[in-house]
Design a protein that fits this description.
- The chain is of the alpha/beta class and about 500 residues long.
- The protein folds into two domains: about 220 residues, Rossmann fold (3-Layer(aba) Sandwich), CATH 3.40.50; about 230 residues, Glycerol-3-phosphate (1)-acyltransferase (3-Layer(aba) Sandwich), CATH 3.40.1130.
- The protein contains 19 helices and 14 strands.
- The strands form two sheets. It has a seven-stranded mixed β-sheet with strand order 4-3-2-1-5-6-7, with helices on both faces.
- It is elongated.
- The protein starts with 15 loop residues before the first helix and ends in a 5-residue tail after the last helix.
- It comes from Nocardia aurantiaca.
- Its EC number is 2.3.1.51.
- It holds the Pfam family HAD.
């Protein structure tokens, strides 16, 4: 009999670690597929915008198209709701060039949808990818909404309701059978035949009663954020159940926390400079500024930092520290983890930031113009001398912030600099910073950022003219670390 205060886990409920372990220990290879339902399973929905904004959207063609693309992301919960979506889409999209809808879908994703992808779903996708499984994202809505998410998650196959197109323009009709209820399950069976998939060994993840036929096609059905009908089915058939935490819009407390963090950042920076002003040494003032600014910002925002491999952040020095970049908050994280004795390289656009621009100038960050390759290379020349002078350098080899935890291709500049300066490269893997502050948002949410500082990498023996394989191995270190986080 459970003790007082002990909460029993619902029958069938799994935590994410158990789900990942099940994939890791299950059947491997491309004949095994992982079918991920879209709305409610990979992406959670959106609250309706305020009435004035909805009315403003309806007053323009582009606004109406955007509203239709965005409002159906969650996925329909009933036959009537789905029919209303299809009728609205067919009516409002008729006569619209398909290329326009594809581009608008990408813009809606980059502006809003990216922040609503469940990180738990991202980790499941990566685990199935590591197992060599065939990845499929499936939805009853259209590819204009679904494909940008699939591309970001690295899912090569998309099954969705197709809209009829003639001469590059939507006709206002559905092409074939909509992927609703049995239509979705039928699409999975057709895909399995075409790609030699063994459905008895495959996985399916879905949330709503309308997706029960989909779940029943796979040998490993998993109910994710299930509605009441799916809860009953999962209990009866002993299906695993996962609950993902929805990503909410900022609350009033988040805005207060952000303002407190900004005040801490500016106040800490000023105090840090003043504390070392008597030395008249810019480097000492810069180090003091970063230390106090980072500490004050973390206290103000309530964000905690957990570090694995902290000893690698202290030695060897100098070094080129490379990190995965998903959030503006990364700057604060790096200042807290690396402490003193470093500067950075950043894109010139940051100089326009009224807060970070002046601070980064003071710590002698090198700004590069990414649009001008020749100028960027010339700007990096003094960085080699900076390293030789004993000061470490921090670089984001992806070149820009990513929308999700996905690790993008690495540019080679950081590695060339390290080779020329005769210093090692040290990977700094950051997890959860994108949850604290989304890429296109200045609002900071309370939480924990994990950092793994990996052992230094000796690049002295690399061939500067042929190091693609070595750079890719380093990038893979980031991928592997995010998927299998090291013990503290």
């Amino acid at each position: 009999m459970p003790g007082v205060g002990v909460t029993q886990r619902p029958v069938g409920a799994q935590d994410l670690g158990e789900a990942l372990e099940a994939v890791r220990n299950g059947p491997q290879g491309p004949r095994v597929a992982a079918f991920f339902d879209f709305g409610g399973t990979v992406v959670h929905g959106f609250n309706p915008p305020p009435l004035p904004r909805r009315l403003a959207r309806r007053s323009s063609t582009r606004g109406a198209l955007t509203a239709t693309l965005l409002s159906s992301i969650r996925g329909a919960r009933s036959e009537g709701e789905y029919e209303r979506f299809l009728q609205t889409a067919m009516y409002s999209w008729a006569g619209v060039p398909e290329a326009d809808l594809e581009e608008l879908g990408r813009q809606v994703f980059a502006h809003s949808v990216y922040g609503h992808i469940y990180p738990e779903a991202w980790r499941l996708v990566r685990e199935h990818e590591t197992a060599g499984h065939t990845l499929v994202l499936i939805s009853s809505i259209t590819c204009y909404q679904v494909r940008p998410v699939a591309e970001e998650l690295g899912i090569p196959h998309v099954l969705c309701t197709a809209m009829a197109v003639q001469d590059g323009v939507l006709t206002g009709h559905v092409e074939g059978k909509p992927l609703w209820r049995n239509g979705k399950a039928d699409a999975v069976r057709r895909f399995a035949i075409a790609h030699d998939i063994d459905l008895t060994q495959s996985w399916a993840y879905a949330d709503s009663a309308a997706d029960l036929p989909l779940l029943q096609t796979a040998g490993h059905p998993v109910a994710v954020n299930p509605d009441p009908r799916v809860v009953l089915e999962a209990a009866e058939k002993d299906w695993p159940v996962l609950h993902f935490r929805p990503r909410q819009s900022p609350k009033a407390t988040d805005y207060v926390r952000t303002l407190a963090g900004l005040a801490g950042l500016l106040g800490g920076a000023l105090f840090g400079v003043a504390a070392k002003a008597h030395t008249k040494q810019r480097r000492q003032m810069a180090d003091s500024m970063m230390t106090y600014a980072a500490d004050s910002t973390l206290r103000g925002t309530g964000v905690k930092i957990r570090v694995v491999g902290a000893e690698n952040a202290r030695a060897p020095r100098p070094a080129v520290f490379i990190f995965n970049h998903q959030s503006q908050f990364d700057i604060v994280v790096l200042a807290e983890v690396l402490g003193t004795g470093f500067t950075g390289i950043a894109k010139r656009e940051i100089t326009k930031n009224p807060v970070f621009g002046p601070l980064m100038r003071f710590v002698e960050v090198t700004f590069i113009d990414r649009a001008n390759t020749a100028a960027a290379k010339a700007a990096l020349e003094p960085v080699v001398e900076t390293l030789r002078g004993g000061l470490s350098v921090v670089i984001a080899p992806e070149g820009t912030r990513s929308l999700t935890p996905r690790i993008g291709p690495f540019k080679k500049g950081a590695f060339h600099i390290a080779m020329r300066a005769g210093v090692p490269v040290i990977p700094v893997v950051i997890r959860n910073a994108g949850e604290i502050a989304w890429r296109n948002s200045a609002v900071v949410r309370k939480g924990v950022v994990d950092v793994a500082v990996l052992p230094p990498i000796d690049v002295s023996g690399w061939d500067p003219s042929d190091m693609d394989a070595e750079v890719e191995q380093v990038r893979q270190l980031f991928v592997d670390t995010l998927l299998h986080w090291p013990d503290s």
